[in-house]
Write a structure and sequence with these properties.
cytoplasm; Four Helix Bundle (Hemerythrin (Met), subunit A); 437 residues; 6-stranded mixed beta sheet; GTP-binding; GTP binding; flat; GTP-bd_TrmE_N; alpha/beta; Gyrase A, domain 2; binds guanosine-5'-diphosphate; 14 helices
């Protein structure tokens, strides 16, 4: 790695807290600990030190420090941690002193994990697992992120890649031999084709997962739709037990799209309140309705709310559940098996949540898939397409073309784990990462 700087960043959350951890990575860690804390602490043990500003000797804090010599660390470099008292002044004082320390600079978002990947401590899929684990809001999301962090995708992709490289070696040997014209080419091809076909089938099976991994990361999207005044905003508030949507008697007040994230028994559910569907002259409201239609088209489930039980089905919805609202007002009974709820009295709310949860569970599964991002899916699909050409190539197919398809298939897998094109993916991944990770 060319970057010889020592980076530092707060590793714990901001705000007043009992302890604030500042994390460092890079060659100056030992010098920092000596300059701030005096006697160097033993490796991998927390040691209590009085931290002094190296510039003027002023006491900054009395804190636990930890010294972790590389390369067997998270980043693969020398690392250190300062467990400060969590006050803003203490933290700011230490950060100012570190900024002035030779060779030290504040870390950009994801910098520690980036170094871990570049130093071979983890592959790209594991780094994505770290990102997802930090983002995880529900238990199922955390489980999926931990599995990826543990290498579930990386190991599988590498195993496939190894197998393809073995086939490639066979194809290249066949190429060499065929030049000499003394080998049973067709025999070699059959064994090779069989193995490539098996990998293709395994990749295709991993892709045929209904996008569960991505959906678990994004959340199961439930759109509340229905005419103005059907009770969408009120229901959203009742479901989320938060005042996220403005409720008003005037039709057409929910002009924009309001989203609330719910944790339904460990499953992430994104509830989307939408503008009421009705003909309108109002340009702003018309834009809201256009957005509603787009959200309905993307939704996993549409709750079609209606106080009278007469709303028309929306043909473009993937899955639709009719819900009669304002059940406390009486009126026409819902259709048989339909749900009737009252946001006012809470009647029917548990049944509605159970119905949504059952659908989310069916759609997201227990998160047993290994593909969790569009990036993986695109590369795996490309790999499968190349292997498919190998599988369908007859004995008379030019061996150099078979070899090229195998090479491209292996390359696509290399992109998933980060053996190929790692920097570009890291830039994109870490643009959404937090500082200090
Ligand atoms: P939206 O336009 O579909 O979002 O509808 P709102 O949530 O703004 O509700 C419209 C009106 O119906 C408001 O006056 C609400 O107080 C009322 N409302 C909503 N839900 C219920 C309910 O369960 N029972 C009764 N009685 N009134 C409700």
């Amino acid at each position: 790695m060319d970057d010889q700087s020592t980076i530092f960043a707060p590793a714990s959350g901001f705000g007043r807290a009992a302890v604030a951890v500042i994390r460092l990575s890079g060659p100056a860690c030992a010098a920092v600990l000596a300059a701030f804390g005096g006697t160097p602490p033993p490796p991998r043990r927390l040691a209590l030190r009085t931290l002094r500003d190296p510039r003027d000797g002023a006491v900054l804090d009395r804190a636990l420090v930890c010294w972790m010599p590389g390369p067997d660390t998270f980043s693969g470099e020398d690392m250190a941690e300062l467990h400060l008292h969590g006050g803003a002044a203490v933290r700011a004082g230490v950060i100012r002193a570190l900024t002035d320390f030779p060779g030290c600079r504040p870390a950009e978002a994801g910098a520690f994990t980036r170094r871990a990947v570049l130093n071979g401590r983890m592959d790209l899929t594991e780094a994505e697992g770290v990102a997802d684990l930090i983002e995880a809001e529900t238990a199922a999301q955390a489980r999926q992120a931990l599995r990826q962090l543990d290498g579930a995708l990386g190991r599988q992709v590498e195993a496939w890649r190894e197998e393809i490289l073995t086939c490639l070696a066979g194809a290249e040997a066949a190429l060499d031999f065929s030049d000499e014209g003394d080998v049973d080419e067709a025999g070699l091809d059959r064994a090779l084709t069989g193995r490539a076909t098996a990998v293709r089938d395994a990749v295709a099976a991993a892709l045929a997962d209904g996008r569960r991994g991505e959906r678990l990361r994004e959340g199961y999207t439930v759109v509340l739709a229905g005419a103005p005044n059907a009770g969408k905003s009120t229901l959203l508030n009742a479901l989320s037990r938060r005042d996220a949507a403005i409720v008003s008697d005037r039709p057409g007040t929910t002009r924009d799209v309001i989203e609330v994230r719910l944790d339904l028994g460990g499953l992430p559910v994104l509830l989307v309140d939408t503008a009421g569907l009705r003909a309108t002259e109002d340009a702003l409201e018309a834009e809201g309705i256009a957005r509603t239609r787009r959200r309905i088209a993307q939704a996993d489930l549409v709750l079609l709310l209606d106080a009278e039980g007469a709303a028309e089905a929306l043909p473009e919805a993937a899955d639709l559940l009719r819900v009669r609202t304002k059940a406390d007002l009486g009126g026409a009974a819902g259709e048989a098996g339909g749900l009737a709820v009252s946001a006012l009295t809470g009647a029917g709310m548990e049944a509605l949540l159970a119905a949504v949860r059952a659908r989310a569970e069916a759609a997201l599964g227990a998160g047993e898939g290994i593909v969790t991002r569009e990036r993986h899916r695109e590369a795996l699909a490309r790999c499968a397409a190349h292997l498919d050409r190998v599988a369908r190539a007859g004995a008379e197919a030019p061996p150099e073309l078979v070899a090229e398809d195998l090479r491209l298939a292996a390359r696509a897998l290399g992109e998933v784990s980060g053996r190929v094109g790692v920097e570009a993916v890291l830039d994109r991944l870490f643009s959404s990462f937090c500082i200090g990770k």
